[in-house]
Amino acid sequence: MGEEILIIISISLIIFLSPLVSRVLKLPTITVEIMLGAIAAYFAIIVEHSILELVAELGFLYLMFLAGLEVDLKKLINISGSLLRKSIFYNVILFSLATAITLYLDLGKIFIIVLPLISIGLLAALKKEYGDVEWIKLSITVGLIGEIVSIFALTTVAAALEFGINSEFYKTMVLFVIFLVAMVLLYKLFHNLIWWYPEIKAYLMPEDDYQEQDIRVSMAIFFLMISVMIYLHLEVAFGAFIAGTFITTFFEEHNKQLPHKLEHFGFGWLVPIFFIYIGSSFDLASLAEDGLVKTAFLIAIAMILIRFVASFLFIKEMGWSKFHMIGLSHSMPLTLLIAVATIAYHNHSITQFYYYAFILSSIMEVLIVMVAIRILSSLIKPTNKSA
Fold it and tell me: Taking Cα atoms as reference points, which of 374, 238, 370 lies closest to residue 300?
């Protein structure tokens, strides 16, 4: 009982202190939460506990749900053909370079999936700091397609690691494709339904909402999708992501405050527990392990460099002074990188050494990229003023 109380108090303090510390250190709150979680575990203030693991898993799924909230399918469908082709080719370049690096250095096949990962979660932090500038708008659009590709890759890898490449794997992938087709049909059905009966939105989410019905509907969809994915033995994180896209696509115009309410609900307490847990699973003593910091640094640099090369595609849109901002802003796939590393480690496809290296590299990327963007954006500003 004393152990559980200590964990609760420690997590509560970290959740409270993290934003304050992040302001002082000029670091993203997520990075601070991971660091404080690791320090707490090092001093045995936070220890392994089944309830903590369960809540952290829920926090991760909610984070994927929030990532889905960034994807409005209606806007994605309406992007120009040329930008769509470039965005797809951007991902092709990332995976090609990742494959070349993996084969040349004789690394584990997991690196082919890890190195090109894109998550737009931290782009929200950049948007808050730098505003809705041109390069951030383009980064979000391209990043949305990249994140969908990454989520698909995550689902495929999770199935492969769990079952191996056998009949069970192919059965899972066929189920996954059927699920995607069913989601497209459901999208079209619901789209037509609310076109004929627009009052459905007002019924589900009334304007005079005194019982937080919008939150209740969102959580019902969230847990329903998780249940479907568990039943089909598919990657649960993808179900949470789909639930988020469903909410944004159909309800954001009706209730513009809903995504913000859901973000405040998640980032206020549930999501931080996931990052604190990730930090607590990292053994600070391993920093002294031979080659760990070097390996993590090389992974981070490799992920940044391949995005820098791929971002040459957008010179026409951004010019020579800003094209690299696209690649840099996509170089912080913190959540998905940790997700893939966690799945791979739990399925014994990577060693603890590489699990720690991936977590450390995800933190390094955030630090390197945030500093680089701050320096480069200060150099860009004079150009914008003169323009």
Answer: 370
CATH number of the domain that residue 319 is part of: 1.20.1530.20
Host domain of residue 191? 2-386
Single pTM value for the model:
0.80
- pLDDT surpassing 80 at residue 76: no
Q: Per the structure block, which two tokens stand in for 285?
A: 């003593």
Measured in Å, how far apart are the chain's first and last C-alpha atoms?
A: 64
- State residue 375's pLDDT score: 84
Is the torsion defined by CA of 128, 130, 131, 134 positive or negative? negative
Please spell the DSSP secondary structure of 206-235, one letter per residue.
-SS-SS-HHHHHHHHHHHHHHHHHHHHT--
pLDDT tens for each residue of 229-269: 888 878 787 888 889 888 888 876 666 778 778 888 888 88
> What's phi and psi for 165, nearest 5 deg?
-85, 85
The phi and psi torsions of 289 (rounded to 5 degrees) equal -65, 135
Distance CA 80, CA 205 (A): 32
Tell me the range of 227-236, 274-283, 298-307 where mean pLDDT is highest: 298-307
User: What total of structural domains would you count in the chain?
Assistant: 1
Residue partners of 335: CB distance under 8 A and separation at least 6:
60, 63, 64, 67, 119, 121
